[in-house]
Every structure is written in structure tokens, then in C-alpha cells.
Amino acid sequence: MNLQINKIQFPVYNLGQGKRIGIWLQGCTLACKGCVNKTLWSPSGGQSIAVPDLFNWIIAHAEGFDGITISGGEPFQQYHPLIAFLYLIKTRTSLHVHCFSGYSVEELLSNHPDQLFLHYIDILVDGRYIQSLPDDANWRGSSNQRLFQFRDGKVIPLAEPPWEEGAWSLLLDSSRELYLSGIPKKGQLKTLERKMAACGCPNKFK
Asked: Which residues pair with 70 in a beta bridge?
């Protein structure tokens, strides 16, 4: 059983509480207008990684980390390998699991009646990204998206995140691609693009 992965970035400090490992899954059919991660839409991009291999990689790198954050793409479109991976994380480590999904909680409960995700995810941000509803909170992309805590199989709505806002994290990979982790507030990407252009750096985000 494999997961299609786009990238892993660490450490990240702004996609959940504490110091985290970010995992971006590949593939999404929701195609939200204005999505900043269109390169993650195709299910054939990225690389396929066996669930045990990904788990072993996390174990090898997890010392000093508080948790993992799963984003995409749409994680729940790889539901069975996702659950298998999160089962290993929650039963064999003390890592906290934070997940983003373009589906609403109501859709997830209907689409996945086993409700296993309620037991293996600690915090979920739900809902489609809606470009016309920008938000200045750094934990969600648009103001319609909601925050939930899952505890003992129960869904608990949260009005505010139980962690402090963190700084963006940058990753320059071996191919000299620059990756930004975090949810930009209104106008922040344009500001960053202008500053990068002034330094002679490529100034467009894919």
C-alpha cells in the first residue's frame, strides 16, 4: 500500500502546534479556483512511497518534533493508505497529527462511514478554498474553513487554534526549487514576490 507524495518539508512551525514535519500528498480533483498548489492536482505527480517506508522515515527523523502535518493535494482522496500511515503514527509514536482537507467534516463522515480518521487525526481544518473569502488567519486559506479537534471519536469545533502563530518555513531543495510552507495572508505572496524580484530571484510561485 503506497501514498503518492509531493514533498516532505521540515521543520515547519506554522501548520499546527510546535515543531512539525510537513507532508504534502499528491492529487486533488476538487480544483478550487485560486488554489496556490495547482502542481499538486495531478495524481501522477510526485513519487509513490510504501506506507511502512514513509513511517520508518518519520521515525528516523522525528526526534525533537511535536507532530506531523498532512496537506495536499487532497489527503482524503488517498484514504486507505492515509489511514494505514496514521494508524502507525498514532499507535507507535507520540506525534500529534494535524490535517487539512478540502472536504467538509460532514462530507468526510458520509464518505468514510468507518470514521477511522476521527481516531487517528488530532486537528482538522476542513472545507473548500474560496478565493472570494480571504482570511488574515494563518491557519486557514479562506474564512469559510473550520477548525476541529477529534477526541475519542468525537468531533469538537474550535473557534481558534490552540497554538500561537508561527513563522513561515522555507526549503531550498537539491534542484534549487524554493518551497514555502504556510498559509499566506491577503497580499503577502505579492509582497514576497516583489522582494524576491528585487534580489534577482525567480519571483513567481507555482
From this structure: 23, 99
- Report CA dihedral (154, 94, 79, 75) to the nearest 10 degrees: 100
Alpha-carbon distance of 158 to 148, in angstroms, equals 5
Q: What is the 3-state secondary structure (H, E, C) of the chain?
A: CEEEEEEEEEEECCCCCCCEEEEEECCCCCCCCCCCCHHHCCCCCCEEEEHHHHHHHHHHHCCCCCEEEEECCCHHHHHHHHHHHHHHHHHHCCCEEEEECCCCHHHHHHHCCCCCHHHHCCEEEECCCCCCCECCCCCCCECCCEEEEEECCEEEEECCCCCCCCCCEEEECCCCCEEEECCCCCCHHHHHHHHHHHCCCCCCCC
* Separation between Cα atoms, residue 127 and residue 146, nearest integer Å: 7
Q: What is the pTM of this model?
A: 0.84
* CATH 3.20.20 matches 2-198: yes
105-156 pLDDT, tens digit each: 999 999 999 999 999 999 999 999 999 998 888 789 999 999 999 999 999 9
